[in-house]
Prior knowledge:
Chain A is an alpha/beta fold and 443 residues long. The first copy, chain A, folds into two domains: 4-246 and 356-442, Alpha-Beta Complex (Amidase signature (AS) enzymes); 286-350. Helices cover 39% and strands 15% of the residues of chain A. Chain A has helices at residues 17-26, 31-49, 57-69, 111-118, 155-162, 179-185, 219-229, 259-274, 286-289, 292-306, 308-314, 320-330, 334-355, 384-388, 418-434; strands spanning 52-54, 80-84, 122-127, 141-142, 145-149, 168-173, 188-191, 211-216, 245-248, 278-281, 360-364, 393-400, 406-412, 441-442.
Amino acid sequence: MADLSKVGPFGLNGLTATAASRKLESGEITSEALVSDCLLRIKERNTDVNAWAFIDPERALEQARAIDKIPRRSLLHGVPIGIKDVFDTPDMPTGHGFKPYKGKMWHAESKCVSLLRDAGLLIFGKTITTEFACPQPIGTMNPHNFERTASVSSSGSAAAVADYMVTLANGTQTGGSVIGPAASNGVYGFKASLDGIDRTGFRHCKPSIDTIGLFARSIDDLILLRSINTGQKRAAHLDVEIRPRIAIVRTASWSDAERCVQNALNYTISVLEKAGAYLEDVQLPRRFDDLINDFSVVNAWEGRRALAMEVKNNFSEFNGYNRERIRFSDSLSEKEFLRSSSLLNSARAKMDKLASNFDLFLTPSLPGEAPIGTTELRTPVYTRLWTQMYMPAINLPLFEGPNNMPVNVQLVGRNNFDAQVLLLAKWIDDRLRESVQRLPIRL
Amino acid sequence: MADLSKVGPFGLNGLTATAASRKLESGEITSEALVSDCLLRIKERNTDVNAWAFIDPERALEQARAIDKIPRRSLLHGVPIGIKDVFDTPDMPTGHGFKPYKGKMWHAESKCVSLLRDAGLLIFGKTITTEFACPQPIGTMNPHNFERTASVSSSGSAAAVADYMVTLANGTQTGGSVIGPAASNGVYGFKASLDGIDRTGFRHCKPSIDTIGLFARSIDDLILLRSINTGQKRAAHLDVEIRPRIAIVRTASWSDAERCVQNALNYTISVLEKAGAYLEDVQLPRRFDDLINDFSVVNAWEGRRALAMEVKNNFSEFNGYNRERIRFSDSLSEKEFLRSSSLLNSARAKMDKLASNFDLFLTPSLPGEAPIGTTELRTPVYTRLWTQMYMPAINLPLFEGPNNMPVNVQLVGRNNFDAQVLLLAKWIDDRLRESVQRLPIRL
Lengths: 443, 443
């Protein structure tokens, strides 16, 4: 992980969820104390980072005191989590990054939030999203360097966790909206399989692709949080070969990756080779590259339908990106949508077959360090395909590039193999950590 | 359609949505008058039918008067629709057929309901569902014969439309919960493709399979309602061959079908042959029959997760069927789920390929007339496969069996081809209607 200590001194807000939960369980700390330190951090830093769409310090503390008083409901009882501002909560507004919805109360609770609340986590506040989770940045800055972007679209969640403003956060991904910001801000990110975390109550913008994800500062945190967010009784156990089979996918965009990204992948490969993993360079069949246009057609068509009411009632209030996409979708025929949708479905089956030969795919997360500025719309070249194929993905943030910004690798698993992929990611994370005296791994 | 005139005299509540909308548009009738007649019908008949989980006559009339005053927003402006009691509405409770949730306000609005409200339809009341849409009946009786079942799980929606208590209704299907009740009660039913109608805000019980559907008393009504419920600007146009390619799928359960069901299918075939359709008997590859166990595993696994909170907090309050399924799911390993889920995904691609050779599949809806009593749990043998393959399906209720109960045929289309399949269903409906002097077609 990039050297996060440089982002300033911190108190209990610096703990991982796993560490905090041990202290909460033993009574060494209270949720109120943990939340106080998070709030302090936000007060100091949020003017620069701009990670929060909604936060009410008094209510957060009140909630923490209430949670401190009741019997512990799960291992994460009392741990605060930031909720991406696309998930409804009955006690806070949900703005979807859309001006007309700023401050709007929807009164509902997304299922994934209810599961967390029911497990005693503290629903801390709403983190900034781009407008309907589109790729146009909305002004959240990278805690490692305020001149650089925090990426899109789960910008606030990733930045808030990276900046120790909150212990955990959630997000969503349709292109690269979890892995991208996790990588830009240097935190662990997990994008579930399509239905790996229940999407009930989540407002879809691309119903066949939108997926839920999680952010944390350790892989153990992700494993624990995912198990609670899927309502599981038992934690999963590692069920991989002694010698995990890993496919290295450099992709057609390999030559566009910055040198530090290439180095991070190559370094990971060398560590895994030494650790006894079976590694194989895999070039995906051309047909998968050819799907780019089909992604675009299906996304536009579904997006147009999902936003039908807003298009009718508030078209002029969309940002430029969304207006352009809506116009593009209006130029499409249903036949084009049907053709693309059918091609994607058949590609999913082919990918499922291909992926069954491996325990996971190793590939970059982003083409480089987070760039300067807030205007760049980067195509999520290393994430889009996996999202559209419903596959779970994990960002490992263990490296640092020439500009002292996080550099990462991505692990991708078979559709629905979320638990196993996380456990294997832990095995890889451990090997990488053992390989150096001190993190981050400089490239 | 079975002889529905026998269910008693009626007023404006007897109109189809298409007929009512013409009269509403011309000012010949008001929404208030239409709603009044629906309420009258409910007062007369609901003690016997038991179709409504929630209805507030005063509020419905008030809403109708308000809608009458504003400019028309769509062709269905002012038409009342019943909402299955699994969709949240901010102005009415949603009970999910689950005792602890009786009368519970969730304060949210499911997206599919918002789209209807935004188009000026009148959100009339909540129709009875079985507990979390499971197959155990909940006491809604068939308007054609109160001793017979209204089927499951969208029981109230189908019975209310069949009994002229409301003009339109919606529902959901995971096994056969739209096509089954539509067929039992003798109304037109449409189950969308998996994402054919936006599931945002719908509480999933089986996230990878739950699908939204619609009920009406004419195929034109279904076409109109679907187009509004998908937020489409333009109505679809028929894009099939002059000579539609229809696959006849008698299925492995053909010999279990009652004679009247077999006759309905054979009659339909003879009419379509005369009308110039290309017909081919298709036996689905054995692999599709072999998926029964995989359906069961995936449904149980997903259901267990989706109901995690209720299992923890309210297990003893589930009905016997759901308790048994939860216990079964607890006996499953994640490996079993992963294997079954992967087999289903690959079957989906194979089905997509197979289905692309035809414009639609013709098959039974139910094995027979609605049986006597309220206890029978029928396996949805003619619908389960299509639901799991994400395919759109339509019930045509044009026949009547030896017990004077509705008998039906089912039309199934390719995944996402919802608009075209509805238009082709209209072509078939027209041919069947032309073939007799008077409906229903007696078998």
